[in-house]
Amino acid sequence: MNRFFLVAVLCCTVAGPGLANSVAGQASVIDGDTIEIHGERIRLVSIDAPESRQPCFDRQGRAWRCGQQAALALSDFIARRPVTCQSQGKDRYRRILGDCAVANVSLSGWMIENGWAVPYYDRDDRHEAGADRAKVARRGIWAGTFELPKDWRRGN
User: How far apart are the C-alpha atoms of 21 and 124, rounded to whole Å?
Assistant: First the structure.
């Protein structure tokens, strides 16, 4: 009996924290780099998408709501499929920083590759090649001109 209790305690101690570090389920898109699963706000790690009210400008100089479009693109990609996120800690707003995927496709990587986000504050170079491809192909926000989301937030 004592041996069974010890094994049960060890299993729960080892498995417990790992389970708490992942979140999975149906996601609601809050904006281009934030989702919500089971009431938990999750900030997609390593990317920065335009804010919902942020404008970008097409080649003719006309403003368009690129932040809103980024959120719609993310929502369309997720398409009610289950999302799995591995926690990378919390940000200053107490949101989970999540490395999230749908069908083994990274949401952060997809947003970068499709031009709806930029690598977050140059802290992580794993998305630089994807950002370069989006820029060359003029996808998403790269189709015209835009202010980096971090700079836009500072002024607005």
Answer: 21
DSSP string, 16-69: HHHHHTEEEE-EEEEETTEEEETTEEEEETTEEPPPTT--EE-TTS-EE-HHHH
- The dihedrals phi and psi of 123, each to the nearest 5 degrees, come to -85, -15
pLDDT band at 61 (very low <50, low <70, confident <90, very high): very high
Which residue segments constitute the domains of the chain, with CATH numbers given?
20-146 (2.40.50.90)
The phi, psi pair for 132, rounded to 5°, reads: -65, -40
Q: Report CA 82 to chain centroid distance, whole Å.
A: 15
44 burial via Cβ count (<10 Å: 0-12, 13-18, 19+): buried
Specify the pTM. Answer: 0.84
Cα four-point dihedral sign 59, 77, 114, 91 = positive
- Shortest CA distance to 134 belongs to which of 146, 152, 150, 151? 146
Closest CA to 69 of 6, 140, 154, 121: 140
